[in-house]
Design goal:
This protein is an alpha/beta fold. The chain folds into two domains: about 190 residues, Rossmann fold (3-Layer(aba) Sandwich), CATH 3.40.50; about 150 residues, Rossmann fold (3-Layer(aba) Sandwich). The chain is built from 13 helices and 15 strands. Strand 10, helix 10 and strand 11 form a beta-alpha-beta unit. Helix 12 packs across helix 13. The longest helix has 19 residues. P-hydroxybenzoic acid binds next to loops.
């Protein structure tokens, strides 16, 4: 319910001047449980944006309403999403760490007249699940495709792929296999692991036995990626001469201290490194570090959220605070800006973010492990998107 002050009411009656309103943004993410740190990064990105830009857009005040979704749980995601729209009256939805959660929320958007800005979930097909989805993260097709080129350039002929068996894993596998084969490489095996896998020793043995020179791996960032990286080190794969190639989900900055020297030299491709050298990133990292409290836990979901807030602010501006999901989404098609990650654009065709993908190497600088950017693949769209 809008609360009109007498003055605002008088203004409206006298000439239709816009009235001040509170616009609620519902954010769904893992704020507790094993992936809570990823949710804290959503919140840090949002808080950083609010600290640098304020919580007013024109006359309107924005208010964030959080809902906790600890693990991938499509039924709960749909229930929370409906509750945010119907119970809380949110005008925008945002967040969604895991693909199944974004997929389950997407069909609700049109009836609710609410746009959704995906801060993380990275399967290409999400964009086709609703015309009201916009995404400020990445897709695993987008991050994995350049890695196939890098592998071939570095002389790797035989590779094995190992991915978590759900949307972004299957996409990462498809992207790497296509790019690697197109460039003349051979895939000796493709392994898909159930999402709840936490003992990676048998997988490491399979990789060793496969005869591959390199393993391309994707797992969703969180406890599983740390477990996989530790198993890779502890089972002596590096010593056996096997190169690990992965999108940057496997070397998120918060995991690097626990991996220590074992991760040094690991090559990954990704859209964002906390160490990215630009004035926009320095300002972002300062604000987001303050927001998260423990700067060592700052990682990529924060930049998806920060840029997502920018996109939502542009939607609110364009619709002058009116609830019009179609107009809001139209207004950000083709929107370009300088993100902390580099120059970006919302692709007007599929509403996913076009961005640089960087090749990075885990390196030690001033006694701290970082993802050091060593090469840029400019203006990458989503090679995995297919017109519906
Ligand atoms: C996803 O579920 O889409 C997802 C989650 C975590 C990642 C990447 C993709 O690191």
């Amino acid at each position: 319910m809008k609360r009109l002050t007498l003055l605002a009411l008088a203004l409206v009656l006298s000439g239709g001047v816009a009235i001040a309103d509170t616009i609620k943004i519902g954010v769904v993410g893992p704020f507790s449980g094993p992936a809570a740190q990823q949710g804290r990064n959503f919140q840090a990105g949002i808080d950083a944006w609010l600290a640098l830009n304020g919580n007013k857009i024109g006359n309107d005040t924005i208010e964030i309403v959080y809902r906790d979704l600890p693990t991938a749980d499509p039924a709960k995601s749909a229930a929370l999403t409906r509750d945010l729209i119907v119970g809380e009256g949110v005008r925008y939805l945002a967040g969604y760490y895991y693909t199944p959660d974004a997929m389950a929320a997407a069909p609700i958007l049109v009836e609710g007249n609410v746009p959704m800005v995906v801060f993380n979930a990275a399967t290409s097909a999400i964009m086709n699940a609703s015309p009201y989805v916009v995404r400020t993260s990445f897709t695993t097709w987008q991050t994995s495709t350049p890695m196939a080129a890098v592998a071939r350039e570095r002389g790797i002929k035989k590779a094995i792929t190992v991915v978590t068996d759900y949307g972004p894993g299957v996409d990462a596998e498809s992207a790497f296999v296509k790019g690697f084969k197109d460039a003349g490489g051979e895939i000796v095996a493709s392994v898909r692991m159930p999402m709840n896998t936490n003992d990676f020793s048998p997988i490491m043995q399979r990789i060793k036995d496969s005869g591959a020179e390199a393993v391309f791996a994707f797992l969703p960032s969180g406890p599983a990626t740390l477990g996989f990286m530790k198993a890779f080190a502890e089972n002596g794969l590096k010593k056996a001469g096997i190169t690990l190639l992965a999108p940057g989900d496997l070397t998120q900055e918060s995991d690097l201290p626990a991996l220590g020297d074992s991760a040094l030299g690991t090559l990954t491709t990704f859209h964002y490194a906390v160490s990215h050298d630009s004035p926009e990133n320095k300002a972002f990292v300062a604000a987001a570090s303050k927001a998260i409290g423990d700067p060592a836990s700052l990682t990529f979901p924060a930049v998806g959220a920060y840029d997502g807030m920018y996109v939502i602010s542009k939607m609110i501006e364009a619709t002058k605070g009116k609830q019009d999901a179609k107009a809001a989404v139209e207004a950000v098609k083709g929107l370009s800006w300088i993100s902390p990650r580099g120059p970006v654009t919302i692709d007007p065709q599929n509403r996913h973010i076009t961005q640089n993908i960087y090749l990075r190497e885990v390196a030690s600088e001033n006694g701290k492990s970082i993802n050091k950017e060593i090469r840029t693949f400019e203006k990458q769209g989503d090679p995995g998107w297919k017109a519906p």
